[in-house]
């Protein structure tokens, strides 16, 4: 009989000793995220049935309308992490400031901070298109025993100890890395268990998909315009195919499996791009690199950027490494 796939729970226990600081805390954080993902998944699946689609009537700090599910997912992830008393701080795309979390005895002895985009691609909910959750984990830099400060959150991406995403798609998956490759787990909704379905996920070095919101073409920098024309040119394995969902998690997931590049550049409308360095780009960059891909701001490695503010935005070029390198070549011509 074929051995059944490992469950995520079994996998976490088995891999615990691989973690850099093996106190079990990081395992417990992944476990908390696993639980919150199931709760949000349940709600996402019922989105058309209950009064949860549509705008919540508020805007987040970035002036975007918050969707009801944005607010719900944000609360579920934050509460699950707070209830388990395993992190010392949380920063979310949906909150103006970071949250300080105290330990069991009201202390500040926990070592990790979590940063997240609780619901990515939220404009897609109302039309039944896949959305996701993105998370990123760092070890605090300020001394254990003191409350967290902004400094603990403003670390370059190469300091991440774990990162991952949940994709609420035709099936729900949790994909994550702790710096030892990327593994994907698929939820069996009948029993509420994630099973290892995509071990050691890898980008192909080349790909044939490019993903960019071409409606903004006129506003893009010349290097991106030239790269798009290059993708569309008839030569060798080109033209490439264009695929764009408008949900970073979904676009990234497809490109990692099939080979491709995702670009959200600067534009004359969004001079720093749209995506957030801490909640979206760094975690995706960590996963991409762990899967043999590449992530860049058009000129250099995303994970080496020293953040200056929580909600900082950056241009993002991410995917199969030769495709990202090619896009960088075009960008360099106009630097
Ligand atoms: P969020 O729903 O967390 O605000 O993120 C939406 C992001 C990202 O998921 C997606 O790739 C991008 O916005 C789409 O932006 P455009 O509609 O400008 O293409
Ligand atoms: Mn997002
Ligand atoms: Mn979001």
Automatic annotation (TrEMBL):
Gene Ontology terms for molecular function: fructose 1,6-bisphosphate 1-phosphatase activity; magnesium ion binding
Cellular component, GO, one term: cytosol
Lineage top rank: taxon: Bacteria
Pathway, per record: Carbohydrate biosynthesis; Calvin cycle
Keyword tags: Carbohydrate metabolism, Cytoplasm, Hydrolase, Magnesium, Metal-binding
Residue sites binding Mg(2+) 2 per the record: 117, 120, 280
Location in the cell: Cytoplasm
EC number: 3.1.3.11
Binding site for Mg(2+) 1: 93, 117, 119
Manner of cofactor binding, per the entry note: Binds 2 magnesium ions per subunit.
Catalytic activity field: beta-D-fructose 1,6-bisphosphate + H2O = beta-D-fructose 6-phosphate + phosphate
Class of this enzyme: hydrolase
GO annotation (BP), single: gluconeogenesis
UniProt xrefs under SUPFAM superfamilies: Carbohydrate phosphatase (SSF56655)
Residues the entry annotates as binding substrate: 120-123, 213, 244, 274
The keyword tRNA-binding is assigned to this record: no
Boundaries of every Fructose-1-6-bisphosphatase class 1 C-terminal domain copy: 205-331
Annotated ranges, domain Fructose-1-6-bisphosphatase class I N-terminal: 6-199
Cofactor list: Mg(2+)
Record family assignment: Belongs to the FBPase class 1 family.
Subunit structure: Homotetramer.
PANTHER family: FRUCTOSE-1,6-BISPHOSPHATASE-RELATED (PTHR11556), SEDOHEPTULOSE-1,7-BISPHOSPHATASE, CHLOROPLASTIC (PTHR11556:SF35)
HAMAP family associated with the record: FBPase_class1 (MF_01855)
Protein name: Fructose-1,6-bisphosphatase class 1
Organism: Flavobacterium cauense R2A-7
